[in-house]
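Appendix C: a fully annotated inverse folding record. The material below is reproduced so that readers can follow the format used throughout the book. The structure is listed first as tokens, followed by the designed sequence.
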């Protein structure tokens, strides 16, 4: 539950997630629509107000022309000196009436109307302040309404994006489980959704089914080959015992023994791959167990035990892991080989060329020893050690020392404490 909440919080704080990209796209689209509508409304309203202002100015000019024709009086509220020069030039050049919006003084905008009469310029003006204030109020209302719509639309977009985002997270979790070795993990989508996420989910499930079937087929093949080889191999072992002693016989017996160990390793790997192996746990003193395991390998190793740790683990499988790690260090590395037991950690280090980059990146691979300088072999020892570590719930990591040498670190699941 806590991990799920933590993942949800990380998703909310990840601004690069699909949820926030959709919200940003909706916000941009809403802003574009609001801006376009606002500009169109502003221009339409402005043109309408300008038209009303011109009509008012023309009506005032007609009234002034009537007064002038009857009395010869000119309007006194319009100072000819304030007439915009461009308007005056147009009226003089055309001899017709002209209107002009004058916003040179933003606090008092005017709409002018002029008409040349008897060699004089008859001019009137009307106050456009109320119209411009109405237009400014309209602009403010449009901005306020757009912000209010964004405040509602963006959260709704985030909520709407949560469903596909959740489905994609489920697909990602399933893919990670498959990558971690859980070949039974599925998205459990029936394929009737019809959208792209459903298609991805169905494809992922199909891929997992094909991968599981292929691995099961490979495991069955390995187990069948190992079992089929066991019977003729036992015949070879018995036959070599009947051969007379000699150099050729010793060589044949050595090769048969290698073949026997290979078949036993393949059988062990097939059991580990099947997932049928279970740990038989017991409280064991790590120092003594590791010492006995190293001694059974028959090779030289410097053992260091810090304290007197006791762990709850499977002693038989732990012995197999330690034996394989120490044997691998001697076979592919260089002496001295150091084995250190510190709490629940067991470290095996050699002073050879180190693990190849492929092993560090991908982990142990059967029938692959990596670099030639690591020596020859089947590549099964570390594969078995990794599988047995997984059975007992331990973590086995492979690194290289900066000054040279391969390091294998086994971390048991728990440590009981010092032996009393």
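Designed amino acids, in order:
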């Amino acid at each position: 539950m806590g991990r799920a909440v933590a993942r949800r919080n990380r998703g909310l704080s990840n601004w690069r997630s699909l949820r926030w990209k959709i919200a940003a796209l909706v916000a941009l689209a809403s802003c574009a629509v609001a801006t376009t509508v606002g500009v169109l409304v502003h221009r339409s309203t402005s043109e309408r107000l300008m038209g009303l202002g011109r009509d008012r100015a023309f009506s005032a000019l007609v009234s002034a022309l009537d007064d002038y024709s009857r009395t010869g009086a000119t309007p006194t509220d319009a100072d000819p000196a304030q007439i915009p020069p461009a308007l005056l030039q147009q009226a003089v050049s055309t001899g017709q009436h002209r209107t002009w919006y004058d916003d040179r003084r933003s606090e008092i905008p005017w709409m002018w109307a002029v008409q040349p009469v008897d060699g004089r310029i008859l001019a009137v003006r009307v106050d456009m302040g109320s119209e411009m204030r109405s237009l400014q109020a309209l602009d403010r209302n449009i901005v306020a309404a757009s912000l209010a719509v964004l405040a509602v639309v963006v959260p709704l977009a985030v909520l709407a994006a949560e469903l596909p985002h959740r489905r994609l997270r489920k697909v990602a979790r399933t893919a990670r489980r498959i990558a971690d070795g859980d070949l039974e993990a599925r998205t459990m989508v029936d394929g009737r959704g019809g959208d792209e996420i459903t298609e991805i989910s169905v494809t992922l499930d199909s891929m997992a089914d094909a991968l599981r079937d292929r691995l099961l087929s490979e495991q069955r093949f390995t187990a069948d080959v190992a079992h089929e080889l066991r019977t003729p191999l036992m015949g070879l072992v018995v036959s070599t015992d009947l051969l007379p002693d000699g150099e050729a016989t010793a060589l044949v017996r050595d090769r048969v023994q290698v073949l026997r160990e290979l078949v036993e390793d393949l059988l062990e790997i097939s059991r580990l791959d099947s997932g049928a192996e279970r740990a038989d746990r017991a409280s064991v003193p790590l120092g003594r167990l590791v010492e006995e395991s190293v001694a059974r390998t028959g090779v030289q190793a410097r053992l260091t035990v810090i304290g007197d740790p006791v762990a709850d683990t499977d002693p038989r499988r732990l012995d197999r892991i330690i034996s394989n790690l120490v044997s691998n260090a001697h076979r592919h590395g260089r002496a001295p080989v150091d084995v250190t037991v510190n709490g629940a950690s067991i470290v095996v280090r050699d002073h050879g060329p180190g693990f190849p980059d492929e092993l560090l990146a991908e982990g142990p691979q059967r029938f692959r020893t990596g670099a030639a300088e690591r020596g020859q072999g089947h590549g099964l020892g570390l594969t078995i050690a990794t599988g047995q570590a997984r059975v007992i719930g331990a973590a086995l990591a492979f690194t290289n020392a900066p000054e040279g040498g391969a390091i294998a670190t086994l971390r048991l699941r728990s440590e009981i404490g010092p032996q009393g």
